[in-house]
């Protein structure tokens, strides 16, 4: 494949554009022929956090590179006069080549490969990946050499709308920030993530929680998610966290327990979900009205089956688009999400009550991304009613 062709229905991840100096290495083709990249995200400590009012301040390598370029300008040779001063009135000897033409001296340029902290990316794919070989290669990594604050995520860069779960979105990083900043809420809990995509938020959660059921639909996506869990087991194992990648289709009524399917549920796991899940999370999953309806039906069905109170955290990015239907800028997917959210709160059926509130977005910033004002975090508290 010589180059990536973007079709009219292509959705492009903004992770590459917002982190231009991050390491994005194309590694393979997935099962449906889409280029797969691997990116590294650092969870920064309290001492390393910068002022997040300016997202560019977090990209330290960019600042260092710019500073070196400025310093290089100071070293440029300047023709001096007899008095030894710049631009002196003395005679200036011009630089001439062997033909007598003026030879312009250029200031030395720094090597971007050495100074920018970026790896050269050569998007040339030799063959499709071998999952067995990849698993063996992943097992040979020395766990002691892996820093506990670096998360590696395999993802795609551009996909059709139905495959956007294979990309990394700001909503997942936003929810991950909330999890890391409020560990007391999730410590030791059993957590269910809906629409987990690449699994980034589940992996972060597993550094705090006891068990995380990381769910989505589609064998190719779930395989990518499982690979990411394997890549980051060095982060979860010290904390005792466990991520289980499972299929959960919002348009189906029951959890799949077919033993012939790779990502099906065991009877013990189904019992664990209904008996012990007290936290449900979902990151940036509301972009299609039918899927949003399916999400809220799934939330209602699950919470009405619990005998205990469950807390739901949903992150969403308010995306604005110009539509011909309105002849104006509108946020259709976001508006439908809010409609479903408050419809759930107003529901009165005697089985479960729901309380909705928007949480403030001023919690600590642990991951490098642009925390725009369109990012929102919603909390839903589901309480079963006595029969």
Main attributes?
387 residues, alpha/beta, 14 strands, 21% strand
Walk me through the topology.
Elements: E1 10-12, H1 15-18, E2 24-29, E3 35-42, H2 60-74, H3 112-115, H4 131-139, E4 150-156, E5 158-160, H5 170-181, H6 183-186, E6 190-193, H7 200-205, E7 211-216, H8 219-231, H9 233-236, E8 242-247, H10 267-276, E9 277-283, H11 289-305, E10 310-317, E11 321-323, E12 328-330, H12 332-345, E13 352-359, E14 375-384
Parallel strand pairs: 6-7, 6-9, 7-8, 9-10
Antiparallel strand pairs: 1-5, 2-3, 3-4, 10-14, 11-12, 13-14
Helix pairs in contact: 11-12
Question: Can you characterise this structure?
Answer:
This protein is of the alpha/beta class and 387 residues long. 29% of the residues lie in helices and 21% in strands. The protein contains twelve helices and 14 strands. The strands form four sheets. Strands 8-7-6-9-10-14-13 form a seven-stranded mixed beta sheet, sandwiched between helices. α11 packs parallel to α12. The longest helix has 17 residues, at 289-305. The radius of gyration is 26 Å and the shape is globular. The model is unreliable at 50-63, 73-90 and 112-140 (pLDDT under 50).
Say how many strands there are: 14
What fraction of residues sit in β-strands? 15-25%
Q: What is the helix tally? A: 12
Q: Helix/strand-derived class?
A: alpha/beta
Q: Roughly how many Å is the radius of gyration?
A: 26 Å
């Amino acid at each position: 494949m010589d180059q990536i062709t973007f079709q009219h229905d292509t959705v492009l991840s903004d992770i590459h554009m917002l982190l231009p100096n991050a390491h994005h290495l194309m590694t393979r083709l997935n099962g449906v022929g889409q280029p797969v990249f691997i990116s590294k995200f650092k969870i920064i400590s309290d001492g390393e956090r910068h002022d997040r009012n300016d997202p560019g301040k977090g990209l330290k390598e960019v600042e260092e590179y710019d500073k070196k370029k400025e310093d290089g300008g100071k070293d440029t040779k300047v023709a001096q006069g007899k008095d030894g001063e710049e631009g002196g009135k003395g005679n200036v000897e011009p630089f001439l080549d062997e033909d007598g033409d003026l030879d312009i001296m250029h200031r030395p340029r720094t090597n971007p490969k050495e100074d920018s902290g970026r790896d050269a990316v050569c998007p040339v794919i030799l063959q499709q990946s071998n999952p067995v070989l990849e698993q063996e290669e992943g097992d040979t990594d020395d766990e002691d050499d892996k820093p506990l604050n670096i998360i590696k995520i395999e993802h795609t860069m551009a996909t059709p709308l139905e495959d956007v779960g294979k990309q990394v979105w700001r909503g997942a990083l936003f929810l991950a920030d909330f999890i890391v900043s409020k560990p007391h809420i999730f410590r030791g809990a059993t957590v269910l993530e809906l629409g987990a995509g690449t699994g980034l938020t589940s992996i972060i959660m597993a550094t705090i929680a006891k068990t995380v059921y990381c769910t989505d639909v589609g064998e190719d996506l779930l395989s990518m998610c499982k690979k990411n869990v394997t890549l980051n087991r060095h982060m979860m194992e010290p904390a005792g966290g466990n991520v289980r990648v499972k299929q959960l289709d919002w348009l189906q009524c029951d959890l799949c327990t077919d033993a012939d399917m790779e990502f099906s549920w065991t009877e013990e796991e189904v019992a664990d979900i209904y008996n012990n899940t007290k936290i449900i999370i979902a990151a940036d999953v509301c972009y299609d009205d039918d899927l949003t309806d399916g999400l809220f039906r799934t939330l209602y069905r699950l919470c009405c089956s619990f005998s205990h109170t469950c807390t739901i955290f949903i992150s969403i990015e308010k995306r604005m688009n110009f539509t011909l239907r309105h002849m104006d800028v509108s946020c259709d997917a976001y508006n439908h999400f809010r409609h479903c959210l408050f419809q759930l709160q107003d529901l009165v059926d005697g089985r479960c009550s729901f309380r909705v509130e928007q949480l403030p977005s001023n919690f600590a910033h642990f991951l490098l991304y642009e925390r725009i004002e369109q990012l929102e975090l919603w909390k839903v508290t589901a309480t079963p009613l006595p029969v």
